[in-house]
Amino acid sequence: MKEMSILIDQKVVGPGARVFVVAEIGINHNGSVSQAEKLIDAAAEAGADAVKFQTFRVDRLLIPSRERCVAQPDGTESAYHMLRRFELTWEDQARLKKHCDRREICFISTPYDEESADFLDAIGMPAFKTASADITHVPLLRHVASKGKPVLLSTGMSFLNEVADAIWNLRSAGAKEILLMHCVSAYPAFPQYMNLRVIPTLQSYFELSVGLSDHSEGILFPPVAVAMGAVLIEKHFTLDKQAPGPEHKASVDPEELKLLIRH
Description:
- The protein is α/β, with parallel strands linked by helices.
- Helices cover 36% and strands 18% of the residues.
């Protein structure tokens, strides 16, 4: 089982090691760097091992003329305009990386394009997380793998053959440390769809360690996932679950994060 372990920011993540907890800030900063720093502080004080952000350029993800109004239930704001508000500059993210260093908490972010991956590598990010939506994005996977850093591969919405292809592409492009992330791509993910039996299935089928990227409400599923073999828990994190935005409701607040980590 030793070969299934990976190293993130000098911490061993794998069977027999302490569960690695990632507070997924994502876009819950609502475009504010000061709010992002407050979230980092709260995650560090709760005892999280890492925080995670999302690094993207909206114009490389969405086309305004073909936008779909999904950001607000009443259709008052499109996904394009919402993400435009939440987009952080390179300078913003470099500042957040330094803030994480001061707070002694690991900075991780998900790149959505090759340029973003280059930037994150340049500022010294110790591991990459790839999004479920990009599991078939071969050029991006291979580009991330070429950095030679651990890769957390999210598997939401995928078939086993797609996971196998992604692993092959990562390994053939230079990735030596891969950890799979079971994920249900819904916000929030309802209990009846969590299917945590996927964790031991992925572990045995690919002989890799597996974590849980949890979009469910509350903290019920992380300890169950750990009991089923998960070695890393990623949980969306916010200071206010009633705040406007698409991910706050499926997030935990600081007190819930503390409770999750203690248990």
